Amino acid sequence: MPSVWLNTSTCPFLLTGFPGLEKFYHLISLPLLVAYISILLGNCTLLFLIKDDHNLHEPMYYFLAMLAATDLGVTLTTMPTVLGVLWLNHREIGHGACFSQAYFIHTLSIVESGVLLAMAYDRFIAIRNPLRYTTILTETRVIKIGVGVFIRACLSIMPIIIRLHWFPYCQSHILSHAFCLHQDVIKLACADITFNRLYPIIVVFGMGLLDFLIICFSYILILKTVMGIASTDERAKALNTCVSHICCILVFYVTVVGLTFIHRFGKHIPHVVHITMSYICYLFPPFMNPVIYSIKTKQIQSGLLRLFSLCYSRTRL
C-alpha cells in the first residue's frame, strides 16, 4: 500500500489552491489580493469612523462595528494561508493550526449571522418604539447582546472542533481549499465521524435558519408598522433606514445558500467552481458590507467626506 495512505496522523495537512491552474497562481492571486486589501481598508475605515465620530455613537452603528470586526476576523483568518499557497506554494499546515483556523472561520460565520439578527432587532425597536429606542438599546445592553452573540458562536462550534484533535488521519491529508474547513478535515479521518456529520446540520444549520426566520419575522412586523404610518414621506424614510441591513442579509445568506447547494447537489460541477464559490462565500460579504453602508447611509457618507477632507488638507500642508 502506498505510504500516502498509511496512518500518519502526525503528518501535516496539505492545502490546495486551484488544481490544474498552478501556472496562473500569481495572476489569480492579484484579484484576491485586491479583494483582501479592499476588505481591510473598508472595514477598518468603518471602525475608525464609528469610533471617532460622535454622531455615529448609536446602537445601529455599534452593531455595524461588530459586523465590520467580524468581517475583518474572517479575512485575517483566511488570508495568510490563501496567499501562502498562491505566492509561495506553501501548502503544509499543522493539525493544531488547521483546527484553529477552521474554528475561527466557522465561529465567525455564526457570529455574522447573530450580528445580522441583532441588527434586525435594532431596526425593529427603532421603528416600532422610536421614542424609547435609546432607553431600550443602551450601550450596556448592546454590549451584552454582542457578548451573547460571540459566546453562542464559540460554544456551538467547539464540540466538533475539539473532536478533530482525537481522530486519527490516515487518508491522503490533502484538503480541497487553501484554508481549513471542518467538512474538509473530517473526510480525511479514519474514525466514526457520525457526530461531526450530524451536529453541524442539526445545530449549526438550525441556528442559522432560526436566525434567518426571526429576521424575516422582525421585518414582517416592521413592514406592518411602516404601513400604518400616514405620511408617505415618513414611510419611505423609515424603510430607507432598513435598506442597507436588508442588502447585507441578502449578500450573506444568498452566498451561504449558494455554497451549500453546490456542495450538496453539484457533484458533477468542476471542482474549481466549488473552490471559487468558497472564496465568494468568505470574501464577498466582507467586501460588500462596507460598500453597502457607505452608499446607503448618509451619516457614513458624511463621516467619509470629513475623513477625506482631513486627509487632503494634511497632504497639502
From TrEMBL:
It is a multi-pass membrane protein. GO terms for molecular function: G protein-coupled receptor activity; olfactory receptor activity. GO terms for biological process: cellular response to lipid. Residues 42-293 form the G-protein coupled receptors family 1 profile domain. Keywords: Cell membrane, G-protein coupled receptor, Membrane, Olfaction, Receptor, Sensory transduction, Transducer, Transmembrane, Transmembrane helix. GO terms for cellular component: plasma membrane. It is found in: Cell membrane; Membrane. The chain crosses the membrane at residues 24-49, 61-83, 103-121, 142-162, 198-222, 242-262, 268-288. The keyword Transmembrane applies. Belongs to the G-protein coupled receptor 1 family. This is Olfactory receptor. It comes from Mesocricetus auratus.
